[in-house]
Each structure stands twice: as C-alpha cells, then as structure tokens.
Design goal:
By secondary structure, the protein is an all-alpha fold. The chain contains four helices and no strands.
C-alpha cells in the first residue's frame, strides 16, 4: 500500500490523533450541543489534519504554505472553542490543559512546516 507524503509528517499524525481525542471528549458534551460547539470543535479539528494532507498534494511551496496557514487558523479556532467549552463546564480544567498542550505542539510544528515551505 502506498504511503502518501502527508502520512509521514509528525504534525499530521499529531493532528489526526488530536482529532480522535476531540471526538472522544465531545461525546461527553450535552446532547443539546450536538449541533453547536460539538459540531464546531469536530469540524475545526478535522480541518487541521485535512489541510495538512491537502496542502501536501499541491505543487508549489507557496500553495503548500497556504494550506498550512489554513490549518494553523483551524488550530486557533479549536483553541477558542476549547476555552468556551471549558468555561461552559463541558470540559474539565485538567482536560483543557492537556488538550491545550497538545494543540501548542501542533501549532509549533505547523509554524515550522510553514517556515520551511516559505523559504
């Protein structure tokens, strides 16, 4: 089976695992939030790894960097939603800190990838 270039990227692996974790955490959210913050958090987290994957298929570094930038924006969106979910009492402070540390690792790697792509 062919391994695509994005599958080799640590940032994609971390973002994918983070998304799976977000799905698990949001399963515990109130049913009334199914179409609210649950959906928003899931879609934004999926966007992080999806844009890394899509960008890897682009021909120019400029195009690749564009998708990495979108991925970074989605990561910041996830952070905003995690803050809201914590303040609404849907996520414990302990889980929030754990997720934020993982998200910081992802954003650091996205910055490094974007810097490499824009050289």
């Amino acid at each position: 089976m062919y391994i695509y270039s994005f599958e080799k990227l640590d940032v994609w692996k971390e973002a994918k695992d983070f998304t799976i974790e977000i799905y698990g955490i949001t399963n515990l959210f109130p049913e009334s939030e199914k179409f609210g913050i649950t959906s928003q958090l899931r879609r934004a987290s999926v966007s992080i790894c999806s844009n890394v994957a899509e960008g890897s298929a682009r021909k120019t570094n400029r195009d690749k960097a564009h998708f990495t930038t979108i991925s970074f924006g989605s990561a910041v969106e996830v952070l905003n939603q995690l803050i809201l979910a914590t303040e609404l009492g849907f996520i414990s402070q302990e889980n929030y800190i754990k997720l934020r540390i993982k998200l910081e690792s992802i954003t650091n790697k996205l910055n490094a990838l974007r810097n490499h792509q824009t050289k």
